[in-house]
């Protein structure tokens, strides 16, 4: 468990510990609330605070297999969830009530999700199928298959018209969800495309890859990359913008690294999960002071990024692909990550759903 005893370390909430492996997470857009998805299928809502103990608020045991992705609605009133069990669920955050359930939303397991409107979400599955759902009717208004492998991540433009999807086959695809057609697909790259982030006032789309490289696309020009930046050998599983020029990336070796883009620099290490356990997901708190991460352990960790926002890059010096091992404000120490080891041979067992209702009406 990471500590914060050093006087120079900024405040951050303590770890949120769970009884099972955390597979995904998402921060509430306005409150100090975190949704954690577990390998059992359970979803846990927790409150967190720097000065108070974290508290479990609600637990949703409705999925039967591992939680894959979580997203809050823009107003924070709804929580959407997808799972390896192929279902799409919608919860009322305040009451904890299950509002909508779409069983077998896809023919294969759902991998990714993005909110595309007040009542709409898009989902991508293991076989490359993208669907857009009207949650009022539980009907798919769009269904397209343009990818041959899993849809790893998706972002939507400000007008909620274009979805950009990354795929495990190594392509980036632009879908026009209003005209229900594919706009453009990139050339086939050698490595999996795993995560996406908009940066530089939306002018750039940054993609993390399986070979440890950040690929850059000019927004609207999806045919080929405009730049690429190797960040190491470990695959980049998740990326979160901190400013328009600085992002944090979670990699397969358990590190959370800070990266400056254009000019490209690895600034250093913000933190580390248990050694050799990959960082699977990250989210930013509503006040923007911390990034939360999860790995193949039972802990959600918080990393204060306030100092990171003030980092400056000296463009007169040659860029670094390594950066400082640990940034001076990092609370991570290598010896802190060997407590609470979990059995990595644990199988993804089905979790029986205690609620047999198809849905509860709004």
From TrEMBL:
Transmembrane segments: none annotated. InterPro entries: WD40/YVTN_repeat-like_dom_sf, WD40_repeat_CS, WD40_repeat_dom_sf, WD40_rpt, WDR55/POC1. Pfam families: WDR55 (PF24796). WD repeats lie at residues 103-143. Keywords: Repeat, WD repeat. It comes from the Eukaryota. The keyword Repeat applies. Belongs to the WD repeat WDR55 family. This is WD repeat-containing protein 55 homolog. It comes from Elysia crispata (lettuce slug).
């Amino acid at each position: 468990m990471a500590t914060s005893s050093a006087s120079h370390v900024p405040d951050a909430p303590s770890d949120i510990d769970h009884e099972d492996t955390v597979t995904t997470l998402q921060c509430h857009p306005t409150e100090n609330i975190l949704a954690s998805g577990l390998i059992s299928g359970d979803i846990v809502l927790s409150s967190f605070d720097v000065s108070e103990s974290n508290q479990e608020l609600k637990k949703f045991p409705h999925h039967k297999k591992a939680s894959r992705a979580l997203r809050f609605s823009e107003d924070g009133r709804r929580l959407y969830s997808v799972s390896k069990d192929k279902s799409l669920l919608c919860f009322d955050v305040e009451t904890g009530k299950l509002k909508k359930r779409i069983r077998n939303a896809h023919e294969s397991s759902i991998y990714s999700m993005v909110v595309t409107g007040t009542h709409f979400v898009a989902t991508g599955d293991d076989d490359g199928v993208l669907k857009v759902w009207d949650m009022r009717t539980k009907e798919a208004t769009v269904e397209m298959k343009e990818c041959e492998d899993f849809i790893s991540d998706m972002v939507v433009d400000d007008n909620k018209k274009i979805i950009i999807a990354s795929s495990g086959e190594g392509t980036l695809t632009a879908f026009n969800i209003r005209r229900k057609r594919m706009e453009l697909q990139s050339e086939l790259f050698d490595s999996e495309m795993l995560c996406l982030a908009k940066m530089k006032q939306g002018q750039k789309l940054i993609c993390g890859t399986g070979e440890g490289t950040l690929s850059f696309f000019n927004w609207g020009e999806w045919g080929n990359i405009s730049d690429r930046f190797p960040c190491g050998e470990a695959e980049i599983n998740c990326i979160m913008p901190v400013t328009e020029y600085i992002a944090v990336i979670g990699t397969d070796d358990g590190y959370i690294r800070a990266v400056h883009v254009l000019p490209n620099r690895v600034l250093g290490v913000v933190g580390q999960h248990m050694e050799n356990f990959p960082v699977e997901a990250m989210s930013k708190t509503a006040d923007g002071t911390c990034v939360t991460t999860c790995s193949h352990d039972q802990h959600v960790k918080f990393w204060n990024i306030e100092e990171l926002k003030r980092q400056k890059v000296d463009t007169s010096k040659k860029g670094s692909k390594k950066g400082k091992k640990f940034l001076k404000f990092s609370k991570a120490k290598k010896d802190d990550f060997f407590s609470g080891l979990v059995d990595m041979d644990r199988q993804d067992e089905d979790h029986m759903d205690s609620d047999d209702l198809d849905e509860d009406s709004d």
